[in-house]
Amino acid sequence: MLHLLLFITPTLLTCVVSGDSCGQQNVSGAKGGEIILRVPNVKIRKINWVLVQIGDLIVTTEPGGSIDDIDVMTQYRGRVSSDADGSLHIYKLSLQDRGSYKANIKRTSGDDKCVVFNLTVYEPLSPGDIRISPTITRNGSCSLELLCSVDKPDVLITWRKLHGGAINVTQGILYVPPSDVNFTYMCNARNPVSNVSKTVIPEEYCKTGKPPKEEITTEYAQVGGLQCQQENHYGLTQEQQQASTVYSEVQHAKESQQNGNGAPTARPRTQCNGTNAKSS
């Protein structure tokens, strides 16, 4: 019996850097999400944002000012706005947005500064990304080796036994002796923007040689402040439905609305200083 747990960290990350001249900051964002490149808290006249790879100007921002799409680099039109302090807000992130962004900060004092943001964009993991492959040994009893894998880059795989207890894991492969096949184990796959877990009871593999074909899924989503629940039954009998449960919690971001400047307004968000924050 398989159980899925999905925890998606917020797709909007805010990064704050110190006022050091030409500071470097590594930042991460989720594909389809948003990010704020937060500038130091200094008296700013304007900021020229440059895409370092090609040396071209993306846009110029000013504290309290707005952005005219005609002044934005083509590939970012309709996807950027200026925060109140001139920080750059990028929406609808794609894998092509990966790279270095340089903020050339013109201060009112005349003492200019620069900050380089090195942006990495990751694809959020989904429950279907986790694959558990069993190797079964039968010699009067059943023992298994379970390989947990995800076919995406920059993913950390870990195993653990629910309710505690020691486990034997080597390079992502979990060895389960005959005495432990009735326990529940969890494989966790994590990248900087999401965290997915799948639980398994090895005894199911001992019985059939493969995982159950059909499952029930329960999804929870925040929509307009209300928690909505939807259950999907895939050809299961009532007894199977009661015995098999898969949970998937997904934080769905609201669609960005357009503000008066033509750029999406910022959604309610969790801010962090260069780190990922867990959703509630």
TrEMBL record:
The keyword Chloroplast does not apply. It is found in: Membrane. Residues 239-280 are annotated as: Disordered. GO terms for cellular component: membrane. InterPro entries: CD2/SLAM_rcpt (IPR015631), Ig-like_dom (IPR007110), Ig-like_dom_sf (IPR036179), Ig-like_fold (IPR013783). PROSITE patterns: IG_LIKE. Keywords: Glycoprotein, Membrane, Signal. Residues 127-201 form the Ig-like domain. Residues 1-19 form the signal peptide. Coiled coil: none annotated. Residues 239-248, 256-280 have a biased composition (Polar residues). This is Ig-like domain-containing protein. It comes from Engystomops pustulosus. The lineage of its organism: Eukaryota, Metazoa, Chordata, Craniata, Vertebrata.
